[in-house]
Amino acid sequence: MHYVDSITGVTYLLEEPRWRGDSGGHVNLGPAPGLKRGDIDASVHSLWRYRKALLVDAGSAVTMGEGSTPLVRAAWDGIAVDLKLDFMMPTGSFKDRGMTVMVSYLKSRGITEVLEDSSGNAGASLSAYCARAGMRCRVLVPESASYPKIAQIAACGAEVVTVRGSRQDVADAALAMSREIFYASHNWQPFFGEGTKTLAYELWEQLGFRAPDSVVMPVGYGANVLGCDRGFSELLRNREIGRLPRLYGVQAVNCAPYYAAFRAGVEHFVPVSVSATVAEGIASSKPTRMREVLAPVRASGGEIVAVSEDEIVRALAGLARKGFYVEPTSAAAAAGLSQLIARGAIKPGETTVLVLTGTGLKASESIGRLLGLKARA
């Protein structure tokens, strides 16, 4: 196995950890063998039950039992859907899927100190797994990041640096700082995606070893789209499924570069106007892997959807009334699902998975304000 330079196609050995190629572009992982259902270790109740499909020695795994999250049937806008509760992870977000694999890989290669930029959840996850691994960690966050997320990062022992400006300003600051510390960005280091592909494996196993018709998920940098594409493609190559599911990514209208490129029919960055959104977890104005996210969405017959702030808030309230207390970023995906149902892109009788990526407990103050909640004396 090897890294592949996204610009030149040059390959690099995995023995030397990288987050970008000599060209300056990001690196991807070459194809992996995947697994068959007989390769699953049913004695392990975490995503490491799929260790034969992961390009990391499970003996060096840095794990907190992440994965194996519930898949719950519920009604949404009049049709039955399966809600994948990925907010029920050790640190409260789906980011733990990628972090357990990425940190395990980096630790096995002798990395002792890492740098990350994050709107909150990725930093919280990385800080926790670094604490578990005995690694030092520095996380750059926007000044506007939710305080509970910042507190979670700091509580795990990471050095937290706040950066004034947009989410992109934070990423730019991290790139400048990467000359002195290994940049373990979940948006650049491809072993993060090697972890998120276990979402596809879990859905396949939980649905009786079959693929869903559709998967709907929020998209910032696109880690879950990348993971679903990689995981389901491995299952298809191993003839464990007969087709790929349609992949639907949902962005906030206020920050929707993937949506703009999808509508333009291109797979490269299209300049867009950006403003604040309550879905801070997907407020990524210049994603790293445009082509790698857009190409599988198109090939699957899916699409990128954009939702307004009002739609996000309505979906947030609707999920909470069903008992699912998630952050606004997750609610954005539910708002996108409502659009898809309304225009018939997703139909009754299909197997549709809605991925809920982050807990509302980290955003309770803003959720209370958005929903106008008041306690009775």
Structure notes:
- By secondary structure, the protein is an alpha/beta fold.
- It folds into 2 domains: 71-94 and 192-371, Rossmann fold (3-Layer(aba) Sandwich), CATH 3.40.50; 95-191, Rossmann fold.
- It is 35% helix and 17% strand.
- The chain has 12 helices and 13 strands.
- It has helices spanning 95-108, 121-133, 147-155, 167-177, 191-196, 198-206, 223-237, 257-264, 290-300, 309-321, 328-342, 364-371; strands at residues 2-5, 11-13, 27-29, 71-76, 79-85, 113-117, 136-142, 159-163, 182-183, 214-218, 246-252, 303-307, 352-356.
- The chain has a 6-stranded mixed sheet with strand order 4-5-13-10-11-12, sandwiched between helices. Strands 8-7-6-9 form a 4-stranded parallel sheet, with helices on both faces.
- Strand 4 (71-76) and strand 5 (79-85) form a beta hairpin.
- Helix 1 (95-108) runs parallel beside helix 2, helix 2 (121-133) runs parallel beside helix 3 and helix 6 crosses helix 7.
- It starts with a strand and ends in a 6-residue tail after the last helix.
- The model has no long low-confidence stretch (mean pLDDT 95).
